[in-house]
Design brief:
Residues 462-489 form a coiled coil. This protein is mainly alpha-helical and 837 residues long. It has six domains: 3-66, no CATH class; 72-189 and 202-418, Na+/H+ antiporter like fold, CATH 1.20.1530; 426-481; 487-634, no CATH class; 635-693; 707-836, Jelly Rolls (Sandwich). The chain is built from 34 helices and eight strands. A hairpin with a 2-residue loop joins strand 4 (753-757) and strand 5. Helix 4 (72-89) crosses helix 11 (232-254), helix 16 runs antiparallel to helix 18 and helix 21 (487-511) packs across helix 26. The longest helix has 34 residues, at 517-550. The relative contact order is 0.06.
């Protein structure tokens, strides 16, 4: 075919893509529906002009359209990896990990259920083999929830719900395509009724191979990109190559799922690249991928839609009944998950509560699209698939896709409106009127000052002021007539606004390079958790989320266990260093929020609410400072280095801002400005290198400051440091259990523990010890010790403790005090130690 015609057709398709988005916005329809409609019209028109006798003038164009090299491999190897890879880069994966259960249920469990339900329903009413029916079930299980996500965003639906649906879109295609490859193999081998257990047993193998391939490919790519840190275009180019190589290696060499490999590669890059690449490079990389994915997504839809008339050429009346079976079975399978399994997950607190109207919207918004058509096309192209199977796969997949796009897609916004999801709640409506009244009062003051500065005509000013005053009066009247908002609701709204201001401050800090891009995602995730917890739980939700942000999470506890039990310290050291930096950044951000409360929230919600928010913020700052002080006590030298690093980065930011002002004022030329900014970039690169946290070295500094070890000579102190080991205990963790054999003594470096013995309870804090009495009395422990705060403990075994006790008067005094508290005479015990020594 003439390359000129092909190039012209592709250019015209890009014009169609450019027009489709504003057309979708104008018609208030999902973008995918418009693309599918335009593509179908173009394909049908091409067939019409080739078959009609009206004119032959458009035959070359029609032949070029129908002759485009549209094969399933174009979708699966060229366009699909782009979409999947960009989706992983654009998602907040840390927040998705909070909802991994509902995401996996929708993306994997729902796909398997849908495949089985559709497959067995078709098998019962058609002459197709079970393998072919299950193949069709896998094909129609790939959802495209982008339409419902876009509408949910436009109506301010809960962020957590939107995130769950986005997570489904990320993993759904991967799971469905993996199943498709499995059943496609059975159909091509002529296995009519595969053993379902054997078939599903191969599913994890496909996934595991894809996971390993994607992870290795991404780690190598990130390593190579970090080596080329000064060559941004090279880094971007490597990122473009990554998903395609991961897909091809997984499919062709490993025999695993290429889609899973691409998803895992994107996840790995999302989690590791921000800490290895310069912030601007990471930002540019995501922007480049957003554009590539926009083009790929539009092309995959419109090219697939071009095939619709061709796939339906051999449709029969009996096929419509089978299409109806597919529709009913697919909708029923999704309804079982949303209305059967989801409520159960909510009851056992593995999933957020999804209200019934939102579940209906998700059910009706489960559109199918280009991936379904691409998989159907792959079946019709295969020479090893029976002709009747190819015909039915093409017709059923296409018919079902058309139903979801043109029946569900065109009515989705109407359904959401009927469910009442597009209306403000009474509280938000009342707040809206008050916010408008406060904003217009501020605008009136600003406009008055602006009018004075520009010396405008008095008549014009008077007429416009009169119109504005009328609008202001209406807003004030509406606010006064609105039902009174309860203080509890005002506090919730104020806390949501406060958390939003915190999030904006974090973004500003990242842009000014005061906070590293690698940690920005975690800070933003904490701010998002704060907003969502406040929306669902009000003041108590805010308190709970804020305490979790300064606490030790699940991954920290895993790292602590690795350190405590197998002496693998690197993960713990990295997480400790991250915690230091995050707490420092959070402290600076929180101290600036008092001004936001006084300047904004007080004007809308009143003094009483503002004072309560000040109190809540003060408590949060206090908790953060306590956590930070605990780290300073554990690692004093490291804390000082981090604070110096922060000051250097702040100074560089201010210096760069000063040079920018001088450049704008014409005090320095472009050449000098470029030289100065390049020098700042070099020094900033050095300042952003975080010092390494050496847990063993920090332990030595900590031991020197421990009160109980005072008086030891340097040599003895050095031996003691080597003998001590560090143990980390989270709040609630039991350190010593009753009736356990006494082997060690514990010294509290930071945190606090609760001791329970013979019905008595007392608490110990920094600088104190426990476990010594059981060793001295040589009896099984009758005491239970539990951490009541995240604690760092120095642990010394029995033999070393006895030797140390002989030399340290401070330690002997602590033993006497501990024994007196329990009503025990320690002199005899100490005499036995001295005699044994």
């Amino acid at each position: 075919m003439d390359i000129v015609f092909v190039t012209t057709v592709v250019a015209v398709l890009f014009l169609v893509i450019g027009v489709a988005e504003p057309l979708a916005a104008r018609l208030r329809l999902p973008y995918s529906v418009i693309l599918a409609g335009l593509g179908s019209l173009i394909g049908a028109a091409a067939i019409f002009f080739l078959q009609t006798d009206l004119t032959d003038a458009l035959n070359p164009v029609a032949e070029a359209i129908l002759g485009l090299p549209i094969r399933s491999n174009v979708f699966l190897y060229v366009l699909l990896p782009t979409l999947l890879f960009q989706a992983t880069l654009g998602m907040n994966l840390r927040r998705m990990l909070d909802d991994w259960v509902p995401i996996l249920v929708l993306a994997v469990v729902a796909v398997v259920v849908s495949t089985l339900v559709v497959g067995y329903a078709l098998s019962a009413v058609s002459a197709l083999s079970l393998a072919a029916c299950l193949l069709i079930g896998a094909i129609v299980s790939t959802t495209d929830p982008s339409a419902v996500v876009a509408i949910f965003r436009s109506i301010s639906a809960p962020r957590r719900l939107t995130r769950i649906i986005e997570g489904e879109s990320l993993l759904n295609d991967a799971a469905a395509i993996a199943l498709f490859g499995l059943f496609m193999g059975f159909v091509m081998l002529g296995v009519p009724d595969p053993a379902l257990g054997e078939a599903l047993a191969q599913f994890p193998v496909l996934i595991a191979g894809g996971v390993l391939t994607g992870w290795i490919a991404a780690r190598l790519a990130v390593w190579l990109m970090a080596l080329l840190a000064r060559h941004e275009r090279a880094e971007l180019t490597i990122s473009v190559a990554l998903p395609y190589l991961a897909y091809i290696v997984a499919e062709q060499s490993v025999g695993a799922s290429g889609v899973i490999a691409v998803v895992v590669a994107g996840v790995t890059v999302n989690l590791t690249a921000p800490g290895r690449l310069p912030p601007q490079v990471w930002t540019n990389l995501r922007e480049v991928w957003e554009l590539l994915a926009h083009w790929a997504g539009a092309l995959i839809f419109i090219l697939a839609a071009l095939l619709i008339p061709r796939l339906l050429e051999e449709v029969r009346w009996s096929d419509f009944a089978l299409i109806g079976v597919v529709i009913l079975a697919a909708v029923a399978a999704r309804a079982v998950i949303l209305f059967g399994l989801f409520p159960v997950l909510s009851l056992i607190r593995l999933s957020p509560v999804v209200e019934r109207p939102y579940r209906v919207a998700i059910l009706w918004g489960g559109l199918r699209g280009a991936v379904t058509l691409a998989l159907a096309l792959a079946v019709t192209e295969s020479l090893r698939v029976p002709i009747e199977v190819k015909r039915l796969v093409g017709i059923l997949a296409t018919g079902f896709t058309l139903f979801t796009l043109f029946a569900q897609g065109t009515t989705l916004r109407w359904v959401i409106g009927r469910l009442g999801l597009d209306r403000l709640s009474p509280i938000d409506q009342a707040l809206s009127n008050q916010v408008i009244a406060v904003a217009l009062q501020t605008v009136r003051e600003d406009v008055a000052r602006t009018v004075e500065d520009y010396d405008l005509t008095r008549d014009i000013v008077r007429s416009e002021a009169k119109r504005f005053a009328a609008r202001l009066d209406e807003a004030v009247k509406a606010a006064e007539e609105e039902a009174e908002i309860l203080d509890r609701e005002r506090i919730t709204l104020g806390l949501i606004a406060l958390a939003g201001a915190e999030r904006d401050a974090i973004i500003e800090q990242v842009q000014e390079r005061t906070v590293s891009a690698r940690l920005a995602e975690q800070l933003l995730s904490d701010a998002d958790r704060l907003i969502e917890a406040t929306r669902s739980g009000g003041r108590n939700g805010y308190r709970r989320a804020s305490s979790e942000s300064v606490g030790y999470g699940r991954m920290f506890r895993i790292a602590a266990r690795l350190h405590n039990r197998v002496r693998i310290s690197r993960p713990l050291a990295r997480m400790m260093a991250d915690r230091f930096e995050i707490l420092l950044s959070q402290g600076l951000i929180l101290r600036d929020l008092d001004g936001f409360i006084d300047g904004r929230i007080r004007r809308i919600h009143g003094r009483r609410v503002a004072d309560l928010l000040h109190e809540l913020l003060a408590r949060r700052v206090e908790a953060l400072e306590t956590a930070l002080e605990g780290l300073r006590l554990q690692y004093p030298g490291y804390a000082e280095e981090l604070e110096r690093r922060f000051i250097r980065r702040t100074a560089l930011r201010l210096e760069e801002r000063e040079y920018g002002s001088m450049r704008e004022d014409g005090l320095i030329g472009p050449e000098l400005y470029l030289a100065l900014t390049q020098d700042i970039a070099r020094r900033r690169s050095e300042a952003e290198q975080r010092p390494k946290l050496d847990l063993a070295l920090q332990r030595a500094e900590l031991v020197q400051q421990f009160p109980l070890f005072a008086g030891l000579d340097p040599t003895a102190l050095k031996r003691l440091t080597r003998a001590l080991s560090t143990r980390y205990a989270d709040a609630g963790e039991i350190i010593i259990r009753k009736d356990s054999a006494p082997r060690s003594v514990f010294f509290i470096a930071s945190g606090a523990v609760e001791v329970e013995s013979a019905g008595q309870i007392w608490r110990l804090g920094r600088g104190e010890m426990f476990g010594q009495m059981a060793i001295l009395m040589q009896k099984p422990r009758r005491t239970e010790v539990k951490a009541i705060a995240p604690s760092t403990l120095l642990v010394l075994n029995e033999i070393r403790f006895r030797k140390l006790l002989q030399r340290s008067e401070a330690l002997q005094g602590a033993v006497r005090a501990s024994a007196a508290r329990r009503g025990i005479s320690a002199d005899a015990l100490l005499a036995e130690v001295a005699k044994a020594g």
